[in-house]
Amino acid sequence: MSLAFCGNENNSVAYNVDGGVLNNGCFLDALNVVPHVFLLFITFPILFIGWGSQSSKVHIHHSTWLHFPGHNLRWLLTFVLLFILVCEIAEGIVSDGFSQSLHLHLYMPAGLAFMAGITSIIYYHNIETSNFPKLLLALLIYWVLAFIMKTIKFAKYTEHGIGPRQLRYCITGLLVLLYGLLLAVEINVILGRRYVCFADPPEVKPPEDLQDLGVRFLQPFVNLLSKATYWWMNTFITSAHRRPIDLKVIGKLPIAMRALTNYIKLRKAFDDQKRPQDTAPQGPKLIWQALRKAFGRPLILSITFRFLADLLGFAGPLCISGIVHHISKDNRTIQQPMTLLGIYFISSKEFLENAYVLAVLLFLALLLQRTFLQASYYVAIETGINLRGAIQTKIYNKIMRLCTSNMSMGELTVAQICNLVAIDTNQLMWFFFLCPNLWAMPVQIIVGVILLYYLLGISALIGATVIAVLAPVQYFVATKLSQTQKSTLEYSSERLKKTNELLRGIKLLKLYAWEHIFCDSVEETRSKELTSLKAFALYSSISSHSVLPLILQTFVVHVHISEDADLSPAVAFASLSLFHILVTPLFLLSSVVRSTVKALVSVQKLSEFFSSDEIGDEQEPRVMLTPGSSNHNQNRYQAVPLKVVNRKRPPRDDWNNYSSQGDHESDGPSQDMDQDICIKISSGYFTWTDGPPTLSNVDIKIPIGKLTMIVGQVGCGKSSLLLAALGEMQKVSGTVTWNRSVTSSVFCLPTDRDAAADGDIRKRGAVAYASQKPWLLNATLVENITFEMPMIKPRYKAVIEACSLQPDIDILPQGDQTEIGERGIILSGGQKQRISVARALYQQTNLVFLDDPFSALDIHLSDHLMQDGILKLLREEKRTVVLVTHKLQYLLHADWIIAMKDGTIQTEGTLKDIQNSEPELFEQWKTLMHRQDQEFETETVAASMTDLERKNLRRAMYSREAARTEEDEEEESVESDDDDNMSQVMRQRATIPWRSCGIYLSSAGLLLLTVLLLSQLLKHSLMVAIDYWLAHWTSHVIRAKTDAIARNCTIVQYCGFSHSWYLSVFSVLCCLGIILCLATSVAVEWTGLKVAKELHHDLLNKIILAPMRLFETTPLGSILNRFSTDTNTIDQHIPTTLECLSRSTLLCVSALGVISYVTPVFLIALLPLAVTCYFIQKYFRCLHLSSCCPLPSNFQLIFLSRCTVEGLTTIRALRYEPRFRQRLLQFTDANNIASLFLTAANRWLEVRMEYIGACVVLVAAVASITNSLYNQLSTGLVGLGLTYALMVSNYMNWMVRNLADMEVQLGSVKRINGLLKTEPENYEGLLTVSQVPDGWPRQGEIKIQNLSVRYDATLKPVLKNVNAHISPGQKVGICGRTGSGKSSFSLAFFRMVDMFEGRIVIDDIDIAKLPLQTLRSRLSIILQDPILFSGTIRFNLDPEMKATDEMLWEALDIAQLKPVVKSLPGGLDAAVTEGGENFSQGQRQLFCLARAFVRKSSILIMDEATASIDMATESILQKVVMTAFADRTVVIIAHRVHTILNADLVIVMKRGIILEYDRPEALLDKEDSVFTSFVRADK
């Protein structure tokens, strides 16, 4: 057949021009070639020459990206134009199929137009990126020409009576419209940018984000195509593949997405809601409305995209139906098309009946549908992420203003607040992500049912009924699921709380042999949690969505056949893929419902949190000014948001304004205040709760520049007084006045109005405050001391010196750059205390509050701190110091003393005043001070407890190093989630952790594994079998029909064809399928649970029995993470991921198998697709891993919130709220940008996978159509192949996603396995429990023979060849300098250390032969750090529940606690909060003493147990111990020698050997004894 532009039939009308040239159809087409050729000739040279020299111009830095006016509209119109041109080409080819010769003019012009369209947009993009608008003139000319040519063609068609019935007429009309619109867009650009015809083109700059090179997240700025396909991510993903992404390199967020921007948006929405007072919604409703107002618009966009995607989704089934239908009726019976103007025209009906056309349309519909769907997801997630950032910022701002009493009274716990930040904000984010589904699902279901009705008639309604019946079941299951989820959460948080307490008190538990009591309690909670998880597993397998289509198919097929309708492959497979589409919304329904429920709960929680008490509520009136005067004031302060304002000279006029409202008597600074007084409280009543006031009738003044001391017994309200002055307590009545000239800090920042009330801020400046319980940031030691202040070397040195921190710093692995706090090195109490005091000293504020800074320090350090720190450093700087202390010997240095008793002020004045006015009190003090021999002159340098801490630390560091070297390389990442540096995780990332997978699966056991594998394989084979049977059956129906027509039977059945045999096989297969689906689902979940149970049980038992070294060398947070995040991953995530992974892989394999079976040609196309797919997933997995390693920024957020809550008073005292807010914004943005990149990466992957999927469909369709038309492939199989091809992209997506998830989640197994390798302590003894005498040890006689002890086989001995003999009932004191081995001595009795030589014999039994549990349960010890557990007082004193009430009361009486406990509601059953926070430090120590007394063991060891107790109580205790334990052996480890002066025997140690060993009197008589030198050391 020769080629000719107009065809070459002999009598061709095509060349006939009698009626004028323009009336010839072929000439019209030729005319239309002109504009396209013009454009191609003009632009190609410009593109290749102009841009060829700098071909990288397209990748130029994004700061030049500038969109011309009408940018998005142009891209949209171009896409539509290209689509219509494709239709025109197809129409030409189809209509050409009817003639003998080829008519090029039918499709060549359209082909050229297509090329020109693509060229135009590339050309435009290049001009835009180089910002050179003059070159757009070429496009202007092109649009004009094209518009004119098409209009002429359209006019001629109309003139010849060709109408809308002909497809080409419609196409031409549309093209006229499109070219017209594009011309308008071009003219608009000229008007906008004035680059031609105008004198002064405006200077245009790119958006300011893009001028900042740090912004790498370009989604908002790129063009439409790049937005839709995430093309801009390519560079990012290739670089991620080359080397792991460092979060620091990710760059910044664009301004519109930053947390601050979104927070301001949200706050504005909240304020708008609150405006109309009468109608303002309350509580959760308010939050919802504000969220809708702030973030509603992008959601609407997302929902629109979703609708479009869902509607396009129905193209699949319709096209399949059309294709199969077309193949099954022979397609050569179509009537001849019309011939007009000498050319052929076809109608749209004929056009759409062509199978190949349908295949191409299906391909395009799929591309569009996937693009819209991903766009919808992306917009929804981005909105969710922005919303999360805004809410987190709002929560944090609220934390900054929280009332501290909420915390101490247990109304709000730290954990609750961290959950708000970490979990509830995420719930809201997910809700926003799933939100479009709420609207899209009903539409999808309705349209689906209508289409089914159109295909199947009445039987479709049966299917719909089944769906309707199952929906409530689904809903019921979903509610059940959310209930079980909730109870699981409750149990797991309870389990975590218990685990946390167990780990924090592990040393005490081991020493008292109580590990198993606590372990059982954790296990008990764990079993409840597992029961709840089992229920969860069961419900989720019921709601499993693979069952539904089977049930539906069964019902519908039965009804359909009984209706006697025809069962053709076209109908069968179209309905099959419709079922697949309908299942998705039903499956999603449960998760959407669940997510909605969770979001409602979270908002409820947030609403409660936002309405909780704020600090300083009662000072509000000052800010509630009348509208007239308030505005300019507030604005004046908001205008200078973060400039440094010097408050040395107070803004007098503002104060007058503020106080002018007649609240002069409120606690504003009175102008006539005495200049020597810094703070004055008059008749103040303060309370923590609504009960009676904690402090009553307080009248005090604190002089400027002087040292004021506050003294009093344990629990009399000393700390509360400081907090009351700082405004942290609720004031019932009275006034607190601050002297402005002093308190204005060296510098102070006004904050935004989210800080406390403006007036309140100006009421006092910054105060450096060191709380009683030291508070540290998760930062380096230096950062903890300088605490946001600039580093001044000499000052820093002085402070370090004053707090004697240098020796400690020298021990730390990285010196003062070592991380401390929760994630870092574990420090002892004294070290923490000194760091916290150092911070207060370093701050340059005029006022310093120190709350009992000596409680955890020994006498030597206390003196040093007092002399160098307080008396020297602070005095020299003329700073006002308020010091709370129990150390009465320092009263001599005080300029002013405030004595407190039971929440009131007993007296105040100088020491002289008190001597005169309150002689008894003075005498009492004096006797207490005399106990240290003539006003503390003889206070001793008994080796300091600090040195002991240093030694512990050194030991920990040392054993850490040792531990490092022992462990093999593979476990390097045990602490990966505690490292910000994630490089080592990355190095291991590219391979799937098979080893962890092996560990995981081997925990399940062989039986379960085989069941699992077999059931999965069987299930998938059955699924394929069912569909294959359907194909086989329907093909037979068609064959039977053609036979019937041949034999002239009217009804198929009469011709010997019966459905019943096919139907029964089909039903059996379906039933089996349903059963297997449930079975596999359950099998997977049970396997998962079994593994979870095993791993947690092993982990807990390993940890409980692990030697103390593990806890000294591993950060607590790291161990806790194994129990929280990792266990949670293993419980809930790995089983589902595993199930999804196996399911999607098998589905994918079966789908590709079926397609290849139907059309073997497909295998050729499969190879390149598979290669592409492999590379895409490889790149993606790298990126997914680098983003999924638990984001450090996310941990930082939680740590920061926790830190802030715990250190609220310190931060507020220093007025550092703005700095912490800034920090939060940084973390939130870091977290959000990581999430956004991850989202974009997910979309990048999915779009590519979906496009590959669309190609699979196209190839499969074309191949099977050709195969069927030429090789007689049965129509049923064509339908089967296409149905499967449609599903491939989904399966591939899930496969890659799950593979990536699995990889990340198996990290948890690996980390837990790392801990499981620890060697336990040796609990077995040579004797059994029954061989140990019942009351052993009765006498309490101790013989130590040639004892040598070390902490670990790799370390040096800490005790060398020690010999000693302690008779029954003796009181023995052990003293010595640091590192002399005193504490190791006490630990040796409990075998907490490695006794590698010698032995300890107690009452004639060598303790090495005893079972550990027995040994430890028969001795008592009191440790330095008081540890209480949450529960009741009874539980804290006697967890084994062996003692009677009388015994408990007796112990409390001895420990001076009886009156305290009597006054509590419930007495012995009164509650103790976590860590004993509802008792003061001193009271906690007393409880620990009482606990030891309850034991009644005949040997008691006291390891400096009286550190945080005031002297009066301490002296009573000393006496009590001597009397109550008169008949028992007591070993006292002393850090202060005076505590052992009246012991029966003193042992002085040095470097692990005994130096002196005698009665104290005998030692003191020897002038040259070391003991004497200790006692004399301070003279």
UniProtKB/TrEMBL annotation:
Iron is among the record's keywords: no
Transmembrane parts of this sequence: 33-52, 73-94, 106-124, 136-154, 166-185, 307-328, 351-368, 430-454, 460-478, 536-561, 567-589, 997-1018, 1061-1084, 1146-1177
Localization terms from the record: Cell membrane
Keyword set, alphabetical order: ATP-binding, Glycoprotein, Membrane, Nucleotide-binding, Receptor, Repeat, Transmembrane, Transmembrane helix, Transport
Biased amino acid composition, Acidic residues: 966-981
Region (Disordered): 648-673, 959-982
Gene Ontology molecular-function annotations: ABC-type transporter activity; ATP binding; ATP hydrolysis activity; sulfonylurea receptor activity
One annotated Gene Ontology cellular component of this protein: protein-containing complex
PROSITE patterns listed in its UniProt record: ABC_TM1F, ABC_TRANSPORTER_1, ABC_TRANSPORTER_2
GO-annotated biological processes: potassium ion transmembrane transport; response to ATP
Boundaries of every ABC transporter domain copy: 679-927, 1342-1576
Bilayer disposition of the protein: Multi-pass membrane protein
ABC transmembrane type-1 domain segment(s): 300-598, 1011-1303
Transmembrane among keywords: yes
Annotated Pfam families: ABC_membrane, ABC_tran
Principal localisation: membrane
Superkingdom: Eukaryota
Homology family: Belongs to the ABC transporter superfamily. ABCC family. Conjugate transporter (TC 3.A.1.208) subfamily.
Protein name listed in UniProt: ATP-binding cassette, sub-family C (CFTR/MRP), member 8
Species this chain originates from: Dicentrarchus labrax
UniProt lineage: Eukaryota, Metazoa, Chordata, Craniata, Vertebrata
Gene, per the UniProt record: abcc8
